[in-house]
Model the fold of this input.
Amino acid sequence: MPALQNDTLIRALFRQPTAYTPVWLMRQAGRYLPEYNETRRRAGSFLALCKTPSLAAEVTLQPLERFPLDAAILFSDILTIPDAMGLGLYFEEGEGPRFERPLRDETSIANLAAPDPSKSLRYVTDAISEVRRTLAGKVPLIGFSGSPYTLACYMVEGQASDDWHKVKLMLHQHPGLLHRLLETNTRAVATLLNAQIEAGVNVVMIFDTWGGSLSAAAFREFSLEYIQRVLSQLKRGSGAARVPVIVFTKGGAPWLERIAATGCDCVGLDWSVDLGDARRRIGAGAALQGNLDPAVLLASPEVVRREVQKALESFGKGAGHVFNLGHGVPQFTPPENVAALVAAVRELSPKFH
Amino acid sequence: MPALQNDTLIRALFRQPTAYTPVWLMRQAGRYLPEYNETRRRAGSFLALCKTPSLAAEVTLQPLERFPLDAAILFSDILTIPDAMGLGLYFEEGEGPRFERPLRDETSIANLAAPDPSKSLRYVTDAISEVRRTLAGKVPLIGFSGSPYTLACYMVEGQASDDWHKVKLMLHQHPGLLHRLLETNTRAVATLLNAQIEAGVNVVMIFDTWGGSLSAAAFREFSLEYIQRVLSQLKRGSGAARVPVIVFTKGGAPWLERIAATGCDCVGLDWSVDLGDARRRIGAGAALQGNLDPAVLLASPEVVRREVQKALESFGKGAGHVFNLGHGVPQFTPPENVAALVAAVRELSPKFH
Done:
């Protein structure tokens, strides 16, 4: 592996001093970029794009051609795991993801097995190898997975939901069944993240997109517990080669202390919490990643710059902040606003270090 | 006004000792009750139901016929205010509320005036009078309004939204315009709540349903500030006749201390926060209302009872807890589960007092 030419992200994740605040954006490769839409057209579908390593690598690298970002994040989808488990992932145009065979009974959950990433998810690690060849150590590459509970949400409901009533009914009525599913998902997530680490990602991130829909007690039992188990199974390495881990629970602001206590290196924040408040609550427990409201990217470059300044001030001086949004880049973001965001972080952040 | 035969709710809101924990449920009158659906059919539409005092009074009282609840809440809709402002509220079957004339420019916002409740919202106070006649002091009647920001969300977007990008674009790009709208909404909300108090409600509640979609800083500036102004304009009365105020921000768990500091009597909680944690954070600052995940009502009566017990334990011993859900009763709730909830609170709560 070539040494990283820009290790600002890694240093910030370990709360080591940096010259400026590193920045990358959730969904930095995506529909707001015309070149992404062009590659997706060539792929034929979103899923074909995810499953074709050369094209996934291409879109992974696109935002880095435009913006001086401090990291690439592998272009993929959290639902590749349940797809590899045989649930039949598909996308309807204009709708979210769907499963042909959602899990509704004991037999289908009992029969579920964690996929072998070297077989059914080979396209993920192949894309990582290809990205790394092109990146050649320019910036770190981030690998990721959904959390066991977030995957279970889609696997039980069969699609996104406003209220997640089906999976919550299982949680309350058949908790043992949900625990069994979460154990399988935990093995699958840990195995995939370890395969990503072996293929050469420099950072891994766990997206707990729907853990925040749970009550505090249910979050601890059904989401955080399994994130913790994933972390304990990761082959993170040690010393200078240790792979830092980011855990992001959308809606997790009430539980930041507990998320930090999992032993992750960095807690991802949505925009509902002030960076300064989060820093006071977590202390030296973990670095923080976030947390501009993505809606800011729909305003003018001047507004973007002003909000970047406010976020930097809220975190304050010192190490341990990775600049990001509180969720993904919106579809209708003008690319020049992303340029304004990245430029503002680069220009305004050095005086906080 | 007749003295209240059951003042358990009022006492709990003032954090005075009670024999048990009072209970009522957001949307306790609603589509899960066959008798509600029957009255709605007679009314012809949801909006006609809201605007016909005799029918609104009828559905307000229906859940009290079935369950020994400690309060009635006026059947109405938070969007009656913008409707009375001339925005043209309508409902499509199976869709949420819509406005014919959403606010998109300076002129429409400048021309907006707070409605006179004695004219265009007379049906609200008429329904209150009718409910009070029938209730005859049996339990308290709760009046309510949306928060200024929550009303603005619908008024600018024209309908509910996943991301509220239109109103957030106004917030970032034309904050002065949004402030102007919020000032008008504040006058409208305060005027309507004062009219409700004059008509005889015993408690008022402000529903800040979408304040939680904001960043921490934007919440303080665009939602909480105006809730605070509403509170300062309320004619709450004094002494034993003082009307307690509940403020509920869905998604407000990161900001409970600040919500309590508005001077409200009670903070409504969604299910993302443990009652015990919220109590420690707020201290003697306010009573707490909540906070079962409404999804619990879709499970069995045994599960409902177990979750009621957990919530009571989480709050712990002492005064200042009003039992409720963390949001409204779901449409497909079996009425026997509401019966189980209310019975469980009555049976299990005395030992916490």
